[in-house]
Amino acid sequence: MVLPDLVIQSMTIRLPVFEQTIGVEWVTKNQGAGLTIPGTWYENIYLSADPTYNSFDPLLASVPNLNSLNPDQSYTHSANVVLPQGTNGLYYIIIKTDHYNGIKETVDNNNTTYSATQINVTLSPPPDLITININTPTVTFSGQSITISYEVKNIGSGITTDNIWKDDICWYQRPPGNSIGRPHS
Ligand SMILES: [Ca+2]
Ligand SMILES: [Ca+2]
Which residues surround ligand 2, an ion (CB under 5 A)? Predict the structure, then answer.
């Protein structure tokens, strides 16, 4: 059986698209003598401090192949990827084609390519969340449920990169004549 051989032929990094997002463009080539038809594979994009892929390198994207490739055929694919919050320093982008080994190839150990140069990532400004406009009923009774409304505002210069976080709600008893309360668990 004549097999294909997928490789990442080249890679271009566009810095930055916005905030912590960078653009990655790469060329995948079938340099083998066989077709990749039928077949689906994934190209995984990683951030790495060194030019060697390790399993602990953060995965930035897993991109399915654009189309099948005949011998000597290639395609150009691109993706915008978000760097993990707190990333700072010099990093390589590593792309591995057919990461999950969906395609039987003549050579599997030539599927990983790293960027020609390191990208210099500066720490993005952090967000700063505060709570404002807390509204509670002025009178209620023990055992009753109450409705509390509040707003969360970001007064920092950076965006929140997490979509989900939790707000803790505690209640405090304020002693008469004392403006500072103490927490109740
Ligand atoms: Ca290969
Ligand atoms: Ca393979």
Answer: 98, 101, 103, 105, 108
